[in-house]
Structure formats: C-alpha cells, structure tokens
From TrEMBL:
<keyword id="KW-0274">FAD</keyword>
<dbReference type="GO" id="GO:0016491">
    <property type="term" value="F:oxidoreductase activity"/>
</dbReference>
<comment type="function">
    <text>Probable FAD-dependent oxidoreductase; involved in the cellular oxidative stress response. Required for normal sarcomere structure and muscle fiber integrity.</text>
</comment>
<comment type="similarity">
    <text>Belongs to the class-I pyridine nucleotide-disulfide oxidoreductase family. PYROXD1 subfamily.</text>
</comment>
<dbReference type="InterPro" id="IPR041575">
    <property type="entry name" value="Rubredoxin_C"/>
</dbReference>
<dbReference type="Pfam" id="PF18267">
    <property type="entry name" value="Rubredoxin_C"/>
</dbReference>
<dbReference type="Pfam" id="PF07992">
    <property type="entry name" value="Pyr_redox_2"/>
</dbReference>
<dbReference type="InterPro" id="IPR023753">
    <property type="entry name" value="FAD/NAD-binding_dom"/>
</dbReference>
<dbReference type="InterPro" id="IPR036188">
    <property type="entry name" value="FAD/NAD-bd_sf"/>
</dbReference>
<keyword id="KW-0560">Oxidoreductase</keyword>
<protein>
    <recommendedName>
        <fullName>Pyridine nucleotide-disulfide oxidoreductase domain-containing protein 1</fullName>
    </recommendedName>
</protein>
<feature type="domain" description="NADH-rubredoxin oxidoreductase C-terminal">
    <location>
        <begin position="394"/>
        <end position="461"/>
    </location>
</feature>
<feature type="domain" description="FAD/NAD(P)-binding">
    <location>
        <begin position="239"/>
        <end position="366"/>
    </location>
</feature>
<dbReference type="InterPro" id="IPR050260">
    <property type="entry name" value="FAD-bd_OxRdtase"/>
</dbReference>
<feature type="domain" description="FAD/NAD(P)-binding">
    <location>
        <begin position="13"/>
        <end position="168"/>
    </location>
</feature>
<keyword id="KW-0285">Flavoprotein</keyword>
<dbReference type="InterPro" id="IPR016156">
    <property type="entry name" value="FAD/NAD-linked_Rdtase_dimer_sf"/>
</dbReference>
C-alpha cells in the first residue's frame, strides 16, 4: 500500500544503502562522477566508515586506514548527496522504491545495496552467547569480559585468531572443529609456526608490524553498526577479571549443548563436573568435555543482511545467503546492484581470485559497483577491474605481518599442486603453492619482503620448474634473481 503513494516520494538518480566501507566508497565515487545528480545514502547508524591514507602497495595489494566519522562530513564534501539516517525496512524492486523504518518512501533509478553482514551465531537467543561485529557489540564484549574469569571461544577464523591473542586476565578455552588453528587463513604448517605465540605476552613479540589503522571518533549508535576491521581492538582494553593469559585449545570438536547451573539436567549432562554451580553457564563439547565459563563468544562467520530487501522481490541468493552479483555487480533485479559483505560474487572468477568477506574486498566492490552503475546510466559498458584478477590480503595475526596471495591454501586445486615451505621459528613462515610449475598462491608470515616478487611471479605465471627448491633458498636474493 505504501508503495502506491508514489507522488509523495523523493526520487534520486542513485541510492546507496549502507554506511560501511562498501557503501561509502560507492557513494563517494558516484557523487564525484555525477556532481549534479541527486544521490542518497541511506544508513542505519549516524557514523560512516571513511577510507583514508589509501596506498597501493603493489599491483594488487593495498593498505588503507579506516576512520569512523559522523555522516555530516560526507554531506559537507558532496553538495549533491542527501544523507538519510534510517534503516530500510522494505523494497519494491518493480516500482523502484524503498521504505525506511521512519515510514518514508524513496525512489531510485539505480540502487546499490551495501548492508553488510551480521555474526552467524552457532546458536540463537542465548544471553551467554555473543558475537562481535560493530563498535557496540565490541563494547558489550569488553564490559562482560572485565567480570570474566573464563570464556569459551567457538570458531577458527579471523575474529577467533585476534581474540585469543588480545584477551588478557581471563582463561580462554578455544574450541575448534579442525586439527589446526586459523583454518580460514592458514594450513597446519603455518598454524604450527604461530602456536608458540599463543602463550607469548603481546609486549614481548619481536617484530612489531605496521598495519592499517582503524579509529573511532566517538561511540556509534544504532542497532546495525558497520563491521569493525583492522586494529578494532587497539582502542579497547580486552582485560578479564584476573591476571595472566592462558589459552587451552580443544581441537576437532563442536558444541553439543549449553546449559546453566540451574538446569535440572546438569548432573546428567556432566556427571563428573566438579565445578557445577560455580559458573553461570556450561558448555558441553562433543569430545566429552564440559567447561563452565562466564560467557561464550561465537566467532563463527557472518550472514549477509538481506532480510529487508527480499520480501516480494525476486533476488537470487547464493548458498551462503548473499545476494548473487555478476561481474558488473548487478543482482538479479533490474537496476539493483550490491557490494561488500552482503553480496556473493557469482561471476566466473579468475583462477587466482576468491571472495572472502574482507575490508579490502568491500572497498574494491563498492568502487567497482559505482563505476558499473555510472557506465550503465550512460549506456556504456565496463570491464571487471584488475583487482579481481588476484586475491591479495595484508593483515596481522599474533603481531606478525601476514600476506596472503592467490590460492594461498591451494583452494580448489585438488591433489594437483606442490608446496614449498621455508620456516624460521619465531621469525618467518613462507609457503608457496605451485601448480604445473607455476606459482598460484603464497602465505607470507613475518617481515619477508617477498610479497611484490611473489605477486609478480603469480601474475606472470612464469614456469618456475628450473629453479626447484632454490625459489625459497634463503641464500639467494630472490628479488634480484627475478628482477
Ligand atoms: C571484529 C572484526 C574484525 C575484522 N577485521 C578485519 C581485518 O582485519 N581485515 C579485513 O579486511 N576485514 C576485517 N573484517 C571484515 C570487514 O570489517 C568487513 O568485511 C567489511 O567491513 C564489510 O564492509 P561492508 O561495507 O560490506 O559492511 P558493513 O561494514 O557491515 O556496513 C554495513 C552498513 O549497512 C548499514 N545497514 C545494515 N542494514 C541496513 C538497513 N536495513 N538499512 C540501512 N542501513 C543498513 C549498517 O549500518 C552499516 O553502515 C573484520 C570484521 C569484524 C567483525
Ligand atoms: N584480520 C582479518 O583479516 C580479519 C578478518 N575478519 C573477517 O570478519 C568476518 C567475521 O570473522 P569470523 O567470525 O572469524 O568468520 P570467519 O569466516 O573468518 O571464520 C568462521 C569460523 O567459524 C567456523 N564455524 C562456522 N560455523 C561453526 C559452528 N557452528 N561451530 C564451530 N565453528 C564454526 C568456521 O569453520 P568452517 O570454515 O569450517 O566453516 C571458521 O573457522 C570474516 O569475514 C573474516 O574474514 C575478522 C577478523 C580479522
């Protein structure tokens, strides 16, 4: 019914939904390309994410800082941009209209959905289980951690890797499904290299590494904040109720049941548990171990925020729940694009690229989506950007610089590959993935200075068979070798 009140709606040439990296990059690109067109950014929180100090480190590797800023800065910068502080609650793709939670209706000629994702908790509606996504949830975690003596961490990806390293003054029971830590980023060899760091206090790490900065100007409000990112924990003290740092890793297990000390079944579920009654919550793993703890962190991935857009429309969703997009960032609905964590890249990928829901990819997709929207508005066509040729990611785990290139974990290669590894304990771990003599991926941990050379070798697909294991010989200056 609301969408019939067409005459009362504001119509914009371009509307972007979401004030995270993808949405802000997209709307800024559109605003500068069409300085006299009417544009709107609709977002649920008063703060937006701005990319600053952007640096192209090599052909595909990029570094930048991210600042959380009030939206007014964007409005001041672009006079053609209207900022709408509200959440979208419905979309009618046929009539090209959106409705926000404050009951207003906006029309668009072209729309880009950049509504991000939210934590995919392994169990819903349990007050002791929390996920970390935005400034609010990080602060909630910090507050509850300050009273905690023991937490249980579920999940083996980026957030879990960061938390086991950052949390102090609280025992961490880290329960993972896999044989080795960090399965989304590393193989077992790299995990072995990093394991000693689990017990090393942060301050004693030998190689402090530089990393993109993330700053928060002031507390963000709203219930759907943007995702945190690089160094989100720098400004937050992740300190438990006690001193010291202890991590216990429970390998190859999953959660079987969660119960509180008042549950009548406690003694049946965990008959040998000595501490029944002294913890607010208990977690039973399928390796027959039960731990009492103060809270449980579910760092078990994300689920794209698509709900408000689906009802009554014909979006095709990918298996991971993301809006399917083609190489022009178009969804299956006419004039609707999507970018960042909310979308799933469903074009035929370059053999050396894969999607991961990361800050860098959110920026690249937001930028590419804007260029596609602009080109289509002018009836032009555009090619897939070069950044989608090769997967590349710079980050930091356990205070080591980590660079991931191409098929860094031999993803999708089957048995048809070979690995070369060089490892110096406490200093560096270098792994190269070769397929038919060509380099197709690499993991570089530590200050290896190999990223640019390896990126070139991956991009030019040179036959490296003649070099054999010399490729990682520390006595050969590989940079000069391939210069
Ligand atoms: C703790 C943590 C650490 C991370 N660390 C890293 C890292 O080190 N490196 C890295 O590359 N990536 C990291 N990531 C991932 C990275 O932050 C995300 O991939 C990226 O920020 C996604 O950007 P986005 O713009 O797609 O979504 P988001 O940043 O989630 O932004 C979504 C926006 O949409 C708005 N929104 C949502 N629903 C609606 C609605 N219905 N109506 C209106 N607006 C809406 C939200 O308010 C928000 O502004 C981390 C993520 C987390 C949670
Ligand atoms: N430095 C960086 O680059 C960082 C990046 N991020 C990004 O932020 C986002 C959120 O991070 P995060 O939540 O860690 O997500 P990730 O996708 O990185 O990792 C999720 C982990 O949880 C596991 N998992 C999924 N479901 C269950 C379950 N039911 N029980 C037990 N384990 C489960 C997954 O295993 P499996 O893979 O087998 O399903 C995987 O190990 C990701 O996109 C991540 O890439 C976050 C922090 C740092």
């Amino acid at each position: 019914l609301y969408f019939n009140v067409m005459e009362n709606k504001n119509t914009f040439k371009f509307v972007v939904v979401g004030g995270g990296i993808a949405g802000v990059t997209c709307v800024e690109q559109l605003a500068s390309q069409f300085p006299s067109a009417d544009l709107a950014l609709i977002t649920a929180g008063p703060h937006i994410k701005a990319v600053t100090n952007f640096k192209q480190v090599s052909k595909t590797l990029e570094e930048f800082s991210v600042e959380e800023r009030p939206f007014t800065l964007l409005e001041e910068k672009y006079s053609n941009l209207t900022f709408i502080l509200s959440a979208v609650k419905a979309l009618d793709a046929k009539s090209h209209c959106l409705e926000t939670t404050d009951g207003k209706v906006y029309g668009y000629e072209k729309l880009c959905i950049c509504s991000g994702a939210r934590p995919k908790l392994f169990t819903e509606d349990n007050p002791y289980v929390l996920g970390i996504r935005d400034t609010d949830s990080a602060q909630d975690f910090q507050k509850r951690l300050s009273q905690a003596k023991r937490i249980v961490l579920i999940g083996n990806g980026g957030i879990a890797l960061e938390l086991v390293h950052e949390v102090r003054g609280c025992e961490v029971i880290w329960a993972i499904k896999d044989k080795a830590i960090g399965n989304t980023f590393f193989d077992a060899g790299a995990a072995q290299f990093l394991i000693p760091s689990l017990e090393t206090p942060k301050a004693q790490k030998p190689f402090p590494c530089k990393r993109p900065r993330y700053t928060v100007e002031e507390t963000a409000g709203g219930t759907h904040g943007s995702a945190l990112g690089p160094d989100w924990h720098e400004g937050i003290v992740l300190q438990g109720a006690e001193q010291g740092h202890r991590v216990v890793v429970e390998y190859q297990c999953e959660v079987e049941k969660i119960f509180t000390s008042t549950d009548v079944l406690v003694s049946e579920i965990a008959p040998n548990l000595e501490t029944v009654g002294s913890w607010p919550v208990y977690i039973k793993l399928n390796n027959d171990k039960t731990y009492g703890c103060d809270l449980i962190v579910s760092a078990t991935g994300v689920v794209p925020n698509t709900d408000p857009f689906l009802h009554g429309n014909d979006f095709v969703l990918a298996n991971d729940g993301g809006l399917q997009v083609d190489e022009q960032m178009r969804t299956s609905e006419l004039d609707i694009y999507a970018a960042g964590d909310v979308c799933t890249a469903c074009w035929k990928h370059s053999p050396l690229w894969q999607q991961m829901r990361l800050w860098t990819q959110a920026r690249q997709m937001g930028w590419h989506a804007a260029r596609c929207m602009a080109a289509h508005a002018l009836s032009e066509s555009i090619e897939l950007d070069f950044c989608f040729e090769l997967f590349s990611h710079i980050t930091k785990f356990f205070n080591y610089k980590v660079v991931l290139l191409g098929k860094f974990n031999a993803q999708g290669l089957g048995p048809n590959h070979e690995l070369l590894v060089r490892c110096t304990k406490g200093q560096e771990y270098v792994k190269v993935v070769l397929s038919e003599g060509r380099m197709v991926g690499a993991v570089l941990i530590g200050e290896t200075d190999l990223e640019e050379t390896f990126e070139n070798l991956i991009l030019n697909q040179m036959d490296l068979t003649p070099y054999g294991e010399d490729l990682l010989n520390p006595n050969i200056d590989i940079e000069d070798y391939f210069d």
